[in-house]
Amino acid sequence: MKYTLGAILLAILFSVNGVGVQIAYADCLAIGGTGLGSAIDESNLVASLSGALNGGARARIKAQKETSTGLTMDLEHYFFTAAGGMLHTADTATLTAIPGKHKTYMLEIAYDVLESSGSFGGYKGRFQSIGLFDIGAGKVVLRYSGELCK
Question: What whole-number percentage of the chain has pLDDT above 90?
């Protein structure tokens, strides 16, 4: 009887502990969607976003460096959602030239959240995007995904 009671108490302890783990992760938010962007000059872009960041974004290219395969960029983004959320990020972009497509690159961006407010208030973390950037036309199409947590 003691063994059975001990096993039951351990099972309860582990199940309560498991609930605690779930609660610890309950303040995380999976995000994902798409974006269509356009350059407004050599350093600034604006975008329309769908999905979790439904709304708009402004990007500023802070630095750019040529590499053997394309370019790297240091960027800053402000994301504004239709639900009243805002994310400010510091970003690193890797652009890989596409052979035979002049001034067109595969784009990978890692976004680090510096500040958040509104419906995203208190959320921090990192998310990423992949897509295409036609620098000649000033057009971007991408898919973003990741998880932000409080």
Answer: 83
Q: CA 126, 50, 32, 60: dihedral to nearest 10 degrees?
A: -20
Q: Looking at the predicted structure, is the pLDDT value of residue 2 above 70?
A: no
End-to-end CA distance of the chain: 44
Per the DSSP assignment, residues forming a β-bridge with 87 are: 79, 116
Q: Identify whether the C-beta of residue 129 lies closer than 8 Å to the C-beta of residue 141.
A: no
In angstroms, rounded to a whole number, what is the distance separating the alpha carbons of residues 67 and 95? Answer: 9
- Please write the tens of the pLDDT for every residue from 35-87: 999 999 999 999 999 999 999 999 999 999 999 999 999 999 999 999 999 99
In order of their start, the domains of the chain are: 28-149 (2.40.350)
For residue 91, how far is the Cα from the chain centroid?
A: 10
Rg (CA), the chain: 21
